[in-house]
Amino acid sequence: MKLKYLVLVIVFLTFYNLSYSQFGKNKVQYEKFEWKFIESKHFDVYFHKGGEYLANYTAFEAEKALLKIQNGLNYKLNTRISIVVFNSHNQFQQNNIISSFLSEGIGGVTQLYKNNIVIPFQGDYEQFYHVIFHELVHGVLNDMFHGGTLQSSMSNGGFFIPSWLNEGLSEYLSYEGMDAHTDMFMRDMAVSENLMPLNRLDGYTQYRAGQTFYWYVADKYGKEKVGDFINRLKIHKNVNAAFESTFKMSFEDFSEKWQKDVKKYFLPDLDLFKDVDDYAVPVAKRKKMKNFYNSAPAISPDGEKMAFISDNAGVLGISVMKIDDNKSIKNLISSFRKQDFEDLNILSPGISWNDKGTKIAISAKAGGEDAIFLVDAESGDYDKLVFGLKSIESVQWSPDGTMLAFSAQSDEKSDIYIYSFVKKKIENITNDLFSDLRPTWSLDSKSIYFISDRTDNLLMDKNKSNFKMWNYNPDNSDIYNISLNEKKIKRITFDPENKKSSISVSIDADKMLFVSDKNG
């Protein structure tokens, strides 16, 4: 790759027009970024300080993804695409390329006419690869349908691909078909009788149902039919005409058949799985609480209370309730309202109680970085721990109350860190390139279990100077244990193809529970 230099000064603490932002979400820039870029055959990849390794990864993976996209669509990219890579999501939120506020759930953006891709690294190379691939599909479609400029788009008729077709294709191609999460989502939609016609897809459903549409087309008509349909859509610039030309039926008739066939595929699952109400009792009832979101529950050490993330009047915050009395809910603290408790990390929150059940630990955005907040479980008062780390997630208090464990990201890597209240010191205990996530303490507070993509790389000797992640497959997931005294990693599970999360160790320490997609 050729390295070139570009000086780009971003104005410090610039506020953007609130009409482009969510309520209470001024777009604030905390850093001055100086940009450089590298060139590959089809891409200019821009990076800032500490990001050259990520830029190289992006360039290599984008070139590999482009070959798959071009083959899948039978189309060749005509213009170069610029990819801007931020080292973390907090830094990504400060960009002045995209005007609107970019919440935690937004993993990347592709501009329509300029065809720039803007993405953050979020500490997980598998997720990063998927985002690169997903956004690149948008970039190729933009080139295919709009030619990279407003003028060429208008000359081509100004046709815009419906969002469910656009996002669905990006998911289908980047996952190379159906993945377990989409399968799970669509199963729930079908079994609960909430599967909508294709022309009514919106929001998050566009991604999952749109991906399922292309998977269905490939399964029923052959994979080449996906590219054939997209090319006919480009020719006709009309959805119904493209369906009639490709499938010999109207869009409405195809949608009805798609709904029926998807239901037939998933409804047999009714005999395989139990309804959750048949074996569990709901605790936080959304309808009774008159809210929309209750997640990330954490039980207090005495088993009497539960802390969780909940929304109140559209604002997310931490709530505490007595488990046997869901009427006594106390809203401790909310995001969006306080300068140093700006945005909860809701995708991997890791709420955790101290050993006495008096305080709760959780990470949240605080300015240009993440911080750990220690919240009083009664008053909502809090202390803030700041370590200079851009991203912190999955905070876990040790059973003896003396330490915190958490996953944090620094430039091109994510590691497991511990903070000692006694020493008032932070320590990186898995200091290498592999993605180390979801720490969970052993009951004796002497070791930590975590999930990683490292396979048999247990020596923690792989770094950016001696290991190329673009030559490694990060699509691995296993559980590991690291002892705090010896700093030795032990591999616990040996089925990397099955994704894992939510580790829990039994009281007698003889068993471990975890969530897995082993059954598909």
Describe the protein in words.
This protein is α+β, with helices and mostly antiparallel strands and 520 residues long. The protein is built from 11 helices and 25 strands. The strands form 6 sheets. A 6-stranded mixed β-sheet has the order 1-2-3-4-6-5. Strands 11, 12, 13, 14 and 15 form a 5-stranded antiparallel β-sheet that branches. Helix 8 crosses helix 9 (239-247). The chain is globular and about 70 Å long.
List the helices and strands and how they pair.
Blueprint: E1 2-5, E2 36-39, E3 43-47, H1 52-73, E4 81-86, H2 89-92, E5 109-110, E6 116-120, H3 125-146, H4 150-155, H5 163-174, H6 180-191, H7 205-221, H8 224-236, H9 239-247, H10 251-266, H11 286-289, E7 294-299, E8 305-312, E9 315-322, E10 325-334, E11 343-344, E12 352-353, E13 359-366, E14 369-376, E15 382-385, E16 391-397, E17 403-410, E18 413-420, E19 425-428, E20 436-441, E21 447-452, E22 478-483, E23 489-491, E24 500-505, E25 512-516
Parallel strand pairs: 3-4, 4-6
Antiparallel strand pairs: 1-2, 2-3, 5-6, 7-8, 8-9, 9-10, 11-13, 12-13, 13-14, 14-15, 16-17, 17-18, 18-19, 20-21, 21-22, 22-23, 24-25
Helix pairs in contact: 1-3, 3-5, 5-7, 6-7, 8-9
- Morphology call: globular
Radius of gyration: 24 Å
Structural class: alpha+beta
How many E-type strands?
A: 25
Tally of individual helices? 11
Q: State the end-to-end distance.
A: 39 Å
- The percent range for helix content is 25-40%
Low-confidence stretches: 4-25
* Widest beta sheet: strand line-up: 1-2-3-4-6-5
Mean pLDDT: 88
Q: What composes the largest sheet?
A: 6 strands, mixed
> Beta-strand percentage?
25-35%
